[in-house]
Design brief:
Blueprint: H1 3-9, H2 13-21, H3 25-33, H4 39-45, H5 54-69, E1 72-80, E2 88-89, H6 107-120, E3 124-128, H7 138-148, E4 154-158, H8 164-173, E5 177-179, H9 187-193, E6 194-196, H10 202-206, H11 208-215, E7 219-222, H12 231-248, E8 253-257, H13 277-290, E9 295-298, H14 304-310, E10 317-319, H15 347-356, E11 360-362, H16 366-371
Parallel strand pairs: 1-3, 1-10, 1-11, 3-4, 4-5, 5-7, 7-8, 8-9, 9-10
Antiparallel strand pairs: 2-6
Helix pairs in contact: 1-12, 2-12, 3-4, 4-13, 5-13, 6-7, 7-8, 8-11
C-alpha cells in the first residue's frame, strides 16, 4: 500500500504546467491572503505572475518563520561515508563511470571525522553516501550509526532508498531522519538522466516516503534537484508530496530542501532549466507560506551572500563548512568530492553572520529534544 506515491502518480503534470503558467496577478493576491493556502495557491506563488509580488511574499514568509521557529537556525553538517555508486546519473560526480578515486571510510576514519566535526561545534549530522547497496548497505550503515551515536545527538541519512524492514532496523540503531530526494518528478525526464543501476526505478524511489511513514521515522525529507526539469512543476510536485505525507503519516516531521545543480567532475548535463537567485527566493517563500511549520533547509551549494539573505525569510535549517568527499574533515582531499560548494566559510563565520542578523545558531536538533 503506497497511498502517497499513488496520489503523486495520479497527477497530470501537463495540466499542472498549464495551470501554473495561466495564473494571473489576482490569483497571487488571493494566495497571499489565504488563511490556509492550498496547492492552487502554491502554484500561483511560483508562477511567473508572482514575480512582481516577491517582496510581499518575503514579508509574509519571514513573519511565519519567526512565529513558528523563533529567531533560530538549526545547524548541521554532512558526513560523507563513501563515494562508491552503482548508478549512472549524468549530473553527479559519483556516477559509476566517472574515473575518480573511490573510498569507503573505515571505522577508524569515521571516528576521526566525528572528532573533527565535534571540534567545529556540530551536534547534528547528515550521513551521506553514493548509492551502492552491496558495499555500503544496511550492515555498514548500522555499524556507522552505532559508532557515531555517542558523538552526536541527532543523526540523519541521505543514502539509497531502502526496504521497510531495513528502515525499521536503522531506527532501532538510532537514525532520527531520512532524506530521499526524487531528483525530478517527471517520469520521462527522470529516465533521461538515470541510465544504469537501481536508481532507474522511479517508483521504488517515489514510494520511499510511504515506507518511512509506515515505520514512524521521526523526520522525512523531500525535494527535487532544481535544474533537471521545469522547476515550477517539480516544486509543485514537491509541495504536494510534503502535504500528502503530512496528512497520511502525521506522526513524522518533514523537511524540504532546495538543491540547485552544481558543477562536478565528469558532468555532461547542460543546465538549461536552472532557476535564478530571485526565482529561488520566490520558491522558498512559496514553500514557507504553504507549509508554515515545515523545516526548510539550505546547503552550502549556495553563495554566502544568498544564504545570509534568505536566512531571514524562510530557511530554518542550514549546513555549514561542508566537505562533499569521504574523510574531508579529518584530511581534505578535493579529488573525491561529489560536487563543488559555493559557501566555503568556516562554521564559526556562518554562525557569526547569523548572529549579526539576530538569528541564533542552534547546533543540535532542539525540536527532537523537545518532542522526545
Amino acid at each position: 500500500m503506497t497511498p502517497v506515491a499513488d496520489a503523486l502518480n495520479n497527477q497530470d503534470q501537463d495540466d499542472l504546467r498549464l495551470s501554473i503558467y495561466s495564473k494571473k496577478a489576482m490569483d497571487v493576491v488571493s494566495a497571499l491572503q489565504a488563511d490556509k493556502p492550498g496547492l492552487h495557491d502554491f502554484m500561483a506563488l511560483v508562477s511567473p505572475a508572482a514575480e512582481p509580488f516577491i517582496e510581499s511574499m518575503a514579508q509574509r514568509a519571514a513573519s511565519l518563520t519567526r512565529r513558528h521557529f523563533g529567531h533560530t537556525m538549526q545547524m548541521f553538517v554532512p558526513l560523507y561515508l563513501s563515494n562508491l555508486c552503482a548508478n549512472e546519473c549524468t549530473y553527479c560526480g559519483f556516477t559509476m563511470s566517472n574515473r575518480i578515486k573511490r573510498k569507503v571510510l573505515s571505522s577508524d576514519e569515521i571516528e576521526a571525522e566525528a572528532l573533527a566535526i565535534r571540534q567545529m561545534g556540530f551536534n547534528s549530522v547528515l550521513l551521506v553516501t553514493g548509492e551502492h547497496e552491496t558495499k555500503v548497505g544496511l550492515e555498514y550503515l548500522i555499524a556507522a550509526v552505532r559508532l557515531l551515536k555517542p558523538y552526536f545527538s541527532h543523526l540523519m541519512l541521505e543514502v539509497q532508498p531502502m526496504s521497510e524492514s531495513d528502515y525499521a532496523q536503522l531506527i532501532r540503531a538510532g537514525v532520527d531522519g531520512v532524506l530521499v530526494y526524487q531528483e525530478t518528478y517527471h517520469r520521462r525526464t527522470y529516465a533521461d538522466y538515470h541510465l544504469r543501476g537501481s536508481k532507474q526505478d522511479f517508483d521504488w524511489r517515489l514510494q520511499t516516503g510511504d515506507r518511512l511513514g509506515r515505520n514512524g521515522m521521526a523526520k522525512i525529507g523531500v525535494g527535487a534537484l532544481l535544474g533537471l526539469s521545469d522547476w515550477r512543476v517539480d516544486s509543485t510536485m514537491t509541495a504536494l508530496h510534503a502535504r500528502i505525507l503530512q496528512q497520511t503519516y502525521w506522526r513524522s516531521r518533514y523537511s524540504v530542501a532546495f538543491p540547485r545543480l552544481r558543477p562536478c567532475a565528469g558532468s555532461v548535463h547542460e543546465q538549461q532549466q536552472m532557476l535564478s537567485d530571485k526565482q529561488l527566493v520566490q520558491l522558498i517563500c512559496a514553500h514557507r507560506i504553504m507549509h508554515p511549520q515545515v523545516e526548510l533547509s539550505l546547503s552550502t551549494r549556495e553563495s554566502p551572500h544568498f544564504r545570509d539573505h534568505v536566512s531571514q525569510l524562510g530557511i530554518t535549517s542550514m549546513s555549514a563548512a561542508s566537505q562533499t568527499q569521504p574523510g574531508g574533515y579529518a584530511s581534505a582531499n578535493g579529488a573525491l568530492e561529489q560536487f563543488s560548494t559555493e559557501d566555503n566559510r568556516p562554521a564559526s563565520q556562518v554562525a557569526a553572520a547569523l548572529l549579526d542578523k539576530g538569528i541564533e545558531p542552534v547546533w543540535h536538533d532542539w525540536l527532537h529534544g523537545f518532542s522526545g
